[in-house]
Design a protein that fits this description.
The protein has 500 residues and is an all-alpha fold. The protein has 18 helices and no strands. The protein starts with 25 loop residues before the first helix and ends with a helix.
């Protein structure tokens, strides 16, 4: 069978293979699996900004004034805005040119920026702060190219009867969102805890905060180069103009939101930042629901809203918890076992959702949101005054519930989505991460400022951070319930919108 021409009318939501290529032997699908399991974590690990843990050492090493510390932390945070801008563009590009080429180019950008971080501040003629900002921005652009390319590759290797690879893509995304910050903290072995929990450690090489795991990028790039050319089971449907428009639709609001997020770090009061976060989240939910009306972007189970849920609840819940633990135990003191358990649960939940009957998929989406709400409730019930959050046992259950819930909801909603709706949903995931960060950060600033103004010491600051996190847990639980309802609404509209 010959591939259809671009002028042929094609339903982009049709799951039937348009072209069978070389039978797609098991080794070809195994290669696609290796790509997903290495490239997705390598991309998401770009997001965490660990500069605050090493900024004091960086300022001393470079001989910069203390006033430059804030600019250095801000520059290191440019990876996330760059990533959310790159995803819509890369989603279109991965439909027009071979996805393996987009994947390799993105991984190459990530790796080049990480290797370039070794020389940040080493060239006297180039200021360190702009260099850090450029490197982190390039990392974010590369990561933003990797994620849609891996989704396209997984989709092409799944074919008509199975959705195991796309389910594992969903599970690996949920797992990486939860595990990224603890891994990034663990990659700075000599960093001191902010409030003296690891005093007496030797000075840290602050550049490790910019590239904690460059070897992971090398592995992902090698795997991509070796496995990406393997034949797939399903040829890509032609990219229609309406689909291209839908994929690029989030670009303008994402750019404006990213700009506001960066500008708000220049002395904006916490209340103003919370307003930006609330308006941004409302806009993203509206975009997901309205976009689901169209056959090119809608899915019967509201994948766009579920991807937004994963962004808001994944890293913005797991990261502050890891940060709280690190205040007393140091970055390497954060127990990795609960987060690793959550990562395994995310993949297991995704595979379970892929095995369920099609009639149970909608219930699985709601059940995934429910597990996330239960995870929030369990964290709220944990005794923080006795240091329960610093031990692996008490945080294992809520993190596993969170991972299983996000993995299940993502995979269940993705199984009924065509490639266009799947890519559209991905474009909303990382703006959701930014919304979550803009929700928790002002709360922490407000509580910490109040503790310092009252003359409190290090213990009072940690208590303030804990109080802020507990408030954020309540807000996140409410958001999870609202997004579950939005997913149901988007799913109904997506189903009606895709009906001929």
């Amino acid at each position: 069978m010959s591939a259809p021409s671009r002028s042929t009318s094609i339903d982009v939501n049709d799951q039937r293979p348009l072209e069978s290529t070389a039978g797609s032997a098991w080794w070809s699908r195994a290669g696609a699996l290796l790509i997903v399991m290495t490239a997705v974590p390598a991309a998401v690990l770009v997001v965490p900004n660990m500069m605050s843990y090493v900024v004091a050492q960086a300022v001393r090493d470079l001989g910069l004034p203390a006033a430059d510390a804030g600019g250095m932390v801000r520059a290191a945070g440019l990876a996330l805005p760059a990533l959310l801008l790159a995803v819509p563009l890369a989603a279109v590009l991965a439909r027009r040119v071979p996805a393996p080429a987009v994947l390799i180019a993105g991984l190459g950008m990530v790796l080049a920026a990480e290797l370039g971080a070794e020389f940040a501040g080493s060239i006297p003629a180039i200021d360190a702060v702009p260099t850090i900002g450029v490197l982190r921005f390039v990392e974010g652009l590369g990561a933003g190219a990797v994620l849609p390319a891996t989704l396209v590759i997984a989709w092409r290797h799944d074919g008509q009867r199975g959705r195991a690879l796309t389910a594992l893509w969903a599970g690996s995304l949920a797992a990486a969102l939860i595990l990224a910050v603890p891994l990034a903290l663990y990659g700075i072995p000599a960093a001191a805890a902010p409030f003296g929990g690891s005093a007496g450690r030797p000075p840290v090489d602050w550049r490790a905060a910019l590239q904690p795991y460059p070897w992971l990028g090398v592995i992902a790039l090698v795997v991509a180069a070796l496995c990406a050319p393997l034949p797939a089971r399903t040829a890509l449907p032609a990219l229609r103009r309406i689909e291209r428009t839908q994929l690029l639709l989030p670009l303008a609001p994402a750019a404006g939101f990213a700009l506001l997020a960066v500008v708000s770090t220049y002395g904006w009061p916490p209340a103003a930042q919370l307003i930006v976060a609330g308006l941004g989240l409302a806009g993203l939910v509206g975009l997901a629901v309205v976009g689901s009306r169209d056959a090119a972007a809608g899915s019967p189970l509201g994948f766009a809203v579920v991807a937004l849920t994963a962004g808001v609840l994944g890293m913005p819940l797991a990261a502050p918890l890891a940060g709280l633990i690190s205040t007393e135990l140091g970055p390497r003191g954060v127990p990795l076992a609960p987060y690793a358990g959550a990562a395994v649960a995310a993949c297991a939940g995704a595979l379970l959702a892929a095995r369920l009957p099609a009639t149970a998929a909608r219930a699985a989406v709601l059940a995934g949101h429910g597990l996330a709400v239960v995870a929030v409730l369990v964290l709220l019930a944990t005794d923080t005054l006795s240091g329960e959050w610093s031990r692996p046992g008490p945080v294992l259950a809520p993190l596993v519930l969170l991972g299983a819930g996000l993995g299940m909801a993502l995979a269940a909603s993705l199984r009924a989505a065509g490639l266009g709706p799947a890519l559209f949903g991905l474009t909303l995931c990382f703006p959701g991460v930014l919304c979550g960060y803009l929700g928790i950060a002002p709360l922490q600033v407000h509580w910490v400022d109040a503790a310092i103004a009252a003359g409190g010491g290090a213990g009072d600051v940690v208590a303030a951070l804990t109080a802020a996190f507990r408030v954020w847990l309540i807000v996140a639980g409410v958001i999870a319930v609202l997004l579950a309802g939005a997913a149901a609404i988007a799913g109904r509209r997506g189903r009606s919108g895709s009906t001929p």
